[in-house]
Specification:
mainly alpha; 8 helices; single chain; globular
């Protein structure tokens, strides 16, 4: 119960903040000039649906965590444990794709959490190629940045750790801060991308502030929804 409560609070905070970001981004894409209050106002107006979605996400998150640890199978080399881990990876990937547009749907179409998930899945079926490419591109860029940061940090640690304990602590703190910043920027860009993608998937438009000629080649429609 305690673990589920932790997951629920964690997901609620993340989804609420992401809803505020996506809501403000959609206003901006459609020619408006949103404020921080506008974004959080949109999130507050859908707090019930956000809580319901967080409940579902927390349940799925606990199941995936359970599977990723080998499920009920124990013992090194246990084939059931391997199957459980593989199932966790596949289900987690499918869940991430199916829910990629759930937040834009929640803040624009006034649907409940289950309806939003179904709507997001429907959008995925129509435009899965563009969604996967965009999501992977963002993830790949920041994964590379994280890898480069880790390598540089390791080199700095090797050459400076023995000179001073203070240098070691400083390196560790800097690495943690850099990874936190990278994670924050990656999450923010993913939220903005989901807003852009939702607008295009639903209306075939990139919004008023985006130049269609510059990004048209990044998308390929498979039919209006």
């Amino acid at each position: 119960v305690v673990v589920f409560a932790f997951y629920l609070v964690q997901y609620f905070v993340m989804i609420f903040a992401n809803s505020a970001l996506v809501g403000a981004a959609l206003i901006r894409f459609r020619g408006g000039d949103p404020t921080l209050g506008d974004g959080f106002g949109i999130a507050k107006s859908h707090v019930g649906s956000i809580l319901g979605y967080a409940d579902i996400a927390a349940t799925v998150g606990m199941i995936l965590k359970f599977l990723s640890r080998g499920g009920v199978a124990e013992g090194k080399g246990n084939p059931l444990a391997l199957i459980s881990v593989l199932a966790s990876s596949l289900v987690g990937m499918a869940w991430s794709l199916a829910t990629f547009l759930a937040v834009p749907v929640l803040v624009t179409e006034d649907l409940g959490p289950m309806e939003a998930l179904k709507r997001s899945s429907k959008l995925l079926k129509k435009t899965w190629g563009e969604q996967i490419v965009g999501g992977l591109s963002i993830g790949l860029v920041f994964a590379l940045l994280g890898f480069v940061t880790l390598i540089l940090g390791a080199l700095a640690f090797v050459f400076l750790a023995e000179t001073s304990p203070t240098a070691t602590i400083t390196i560790v703190i800097l690495l943690v801060l850099i990874f936190l910043v990278l994670a924050l920027i990656s999450s923010t860009l993913s939220g903005i991308y989901s807003a852009v993608f939702y607008d295009y998937a639903v209306g075939g438009s990139f919004g008023e502030i985006l130049k269609e000629d510059l990004i048209k080649s990044a998308f390929r429609t498979k039919g209006r929804i």
